[in-house]
Amino acid sequence: MAISVSSDINAVMDRYAKQTAANSAAAGLEKKLKGDLSNASDEELMDVCKSFEAYLLEHVLKDVKEAIVPKKEDENPYLNMFGDNLYQEYSKMIADSGQLGIAQKLFESMKRNTPVVKTEE
C-alpha cells in the first residue's frame, strides 16, 4: 500500500483551511449575536437572524452532501473550495428568500424577548 505524502499533506491543508474558514464565520456570527442588540433597528436585527439562518443552512447542506456523496481519497482541493463557496451562496439565497422562516421566527422571538430601552425626553 503506497501512501502519497503530497496527497496526505494536501488533505491536511484542505481540512485545516475548511476548519479555519468555519471558525472565522462562526466567530463573526457569534460577535454579532453577542453584541448589544437592544438598540438595533429592525433591519439590523433581521440581518443578524438571516446570517444565522444562512450559517445553519450551510452546515446542513454540507452534511447532506457528505451523507450522499461518497468520500474520495483524491478529491481536488480547488473543487472542494468551489463547493464550499457554492453552499455558502445557496445558503444565503435560501435565507434571503425567507421560505424556511427560521430567520423570521428568530426575529419575532428576539423582538418579543429584548427589553425596550426608553430614553428620557
How would you portray this structure in words?
This protein has 121 residues and is mostly helical. The chain has a domain at 41-113. The protein contains 4 helices and no strands. It has helices spanning 5-34, 42-68, 77-97, 102-113. The longest helix is centred in the first third of the chain and has 30 residues, at 5-34. The chain is elongated. The termini are far apart. The model is unreliable at 1-5 (pLDDT under 50).
User: What is the H/E string?
Assistant: HHHH
Work out the helix count: 4
Helix content percent band: over 70%
- The dominant shape is elongated
How many runs of DSSP E, i.e. beta strands?
Answer: 0
User: Strand count, sense and closure of the main sheet?
Assistant: none
Uncertain runs are 1-5
Radius of gyration (CA) equals 19 Å
**Integer average pLDDT:** 77
Structural class, from helix and strand content? mainly alpha
Strand content: under 5%
Could you give the distance between the termini?
Answer: 78 Å
Structural topology:
Blueprint (H helix, E strand, L loop, with lengths): L4 H30 L7 H27 L8 H21 L4 H12 L8
Helix pairs in contact: 1-2, 1-3, 2-3, 2-4
In short:
The chain is mainly α. 74% of the residues lie in helices and 0% in strands.
